[in-house]
Amino acid sequence: MNAYLILDISINDFESFKGYIEKIPAFIQKHDGRYVIQGVEPEVMEGDWKPERVVVIEFPTKEGAKGFLNDPDAQALFDIRHKSTTSKLILAEGCL
């Protein structure tokens, strides 16, 4: 069953964040993931959720998504994201 990492992100330091943007796609691909939504400015339709940007990454399995998040070689990039952005991340499995 497909799994999705959904990221609500506000960029605080774009210069630092650029390193993450350039290098993280290789790790997503390494774990058979792909961008479904890549850093778009969403249009709020209901409620008070006001994300600045949204990213959705699809993986074939929940384990693949967790493998990506736990990849030791990607941790330095996640540190860059944590230091240069304010973000919220959830993992959700698909219906099919």
Automatic annotation (TrEMBL):
Pfam families in the record: DUF1330
Domain DUF1330: residue ranges: 3-94
Domain of life where this protein originates: Bacteria
InterPro entries found in the cross-reference section: Dimeric_a/b-barrel, DUF1330
Name of the protein in question: DUF1330 domain-containing protein
Organism: Halothiobacillus neapolitanus (strain ATCC 23641 / DSM 15147 / CIP 104769 / NCIMB 8539 / c2)
